[in-house]
Design brief:
Layout: H1 10-21, E1 30-37, H2 46-59, E2 63-68, E3 71-78, H3 82-99, E4 102-108
Antiparallel strand pairs: 1-3, 1-4, 2-3
Length: 115
């Protein structure tokens, strides 16, 4: 059983607990998405807001899953074990703060351990 006490964000911990309850192998690399949204009341143009963020995601090894006026999502192959998720969330929260947007979390494919 992975050490979920390492997970600092309650939302991340809840997602990992759901994955584990489904028999997921958290150490397996899998398709993972991250999401950024426009903050409420944000008046900047979507292109000006999200194109630089999308470029930074690409520079960090992510592909762009979608880019639209109110947000951007990136995709990559990543592990979702507790240490990796702590690092991912910290990196994405810092990136969101740098660009003045909201980091809305991550999602991933479920990979069930093989017997």
């Amino acid at each position: 059983m992975p050490d979920l006490d390492l997970v600092h964000r309650a939302v991340d911990r809840a997602v990992l607990e759901q994955l584990v309850s489904r028999g997921d192998d958290l150490s397996a690399v899998r398709h993972t998405l991250v999401f950024f949204q426009r903050p409420k009341g944000e008046a900047r143009d979507g292109e000006l807001l999200f194109n630089p963020l999308a470029a930074q995601l690409v520079a960090r090894g992510w592909g762009i899953y979608s880019l639209y006026a109110d947000g951007v999502s990136g995709e990559a192959q990543r592990r979702v074990d507790p240490v990796s998720i702590n690092e991912l969330s910290a990196e994405m929260e810092a990136l969101a703060a740098e660009f003045g947007v909201t980091y809305d979390g991550w999602e991933c494919a479920v990979i069930v351990k093989q017997p």
